[in-house]
Amino acid sequence: MSSKPRRRLAVLACMDTRLDLYAILGLKRGDAHFIRNAGGLASEDAIRSLAASQRLLGTEEVIVLMHDQCGLCGASEDQFAMALAADNALPPWRLGAFESVEQALAASLARLRSAPELTHRDQIRGLVFNPADGSLREPQRVAHA
Ligand SMILES: [Zn+2]
């Protein structure tokens, strides 16, 4: 088995326990890179991993997978920062809380589509998984010429 993903695909997804990426996307071991963080957000470190995926390991397509009922949806950015500060933690990052999964997804897609770190930016799709009923939707389908 090669370390290069068979389907030339990298998936950026939330770390949520209910997201079984293999089952949701119909993938097998060896098919894709999985990059996971809180929210599935296009953070600097997610972009670092995607840059390595594309530039070193040959992937050409990105799927960003977020979901309904995300722990970051409706969380308080300010309260989180204050709790960190109370423990003398002043990290350079923010939690990334959001009010709408569709808006958070759109922002992450826009970030990736304008990231010069990535060599392949024409096949970047966003999906939202619903853990309640197992459905998957694509709110931002972009037509390609
Ligand atoms: Zn989540």
Quaternary class: single chain
Q: Specify the biggest β-sheet.
A: 5 strands, mixed
Number of helices: 4
The low-confidence parts are none
Q: What's the architecture, going by CATH?
A: 3-Layer(aba) Sandwich
Q: What order do the strands of the largest sheet run in, or round the barrel if closed?
A: 2-1-3-4-5
* Cα-to-Cα separation, first versus last residue: 34 Å
Count of spatially separate domains: 1
* Quantity of strands, as a count: 5
Output the helix-strand order: EHEHEHHEE
Overview in brief:
The chain has 145 residues and is α/β, with parallel strands linked by helices. Helix content is 29%, strand content 20%.
Keywords for this structure?
single chain, 145 residues, alpha/beta, Beta-carbonic Anhydrase, Chain A, 5-stranded mixed sheet, 4 helices, 5 strands, 29% helix, 20% strand, globular, binds zinc ion
Itemize the secondary structure elements and their pairings:
Layout: E1 9-14, H1 21-25, E2 32-37, H2 44-57, E3 61-67, H3 77-86, H4 101-113, E4 124-130, E5 135-137
Parallel strand pairs: 1-2, 1-3, 3-4
Antiparallel strand pairs: 4-5
Could you please describe the fold and organization of this structure?
- The chain has four helices and five strands; from the N terminus they run βαβαβααββ.
- By secondary structure, the protein is of the alpha/beta class.
- The chain has a single domain, classed as Beta-carbonic Anhydrase, Chain A (3-Layer(aba) Sandwich).
- A five-stranded mixed β-sheet has the order 2-1-3-4-5, with helices on one face.
- The termini are far apart.
- The model has no long low-confidence stretch (mean pLDDT 96).
- It binds zinc ion.
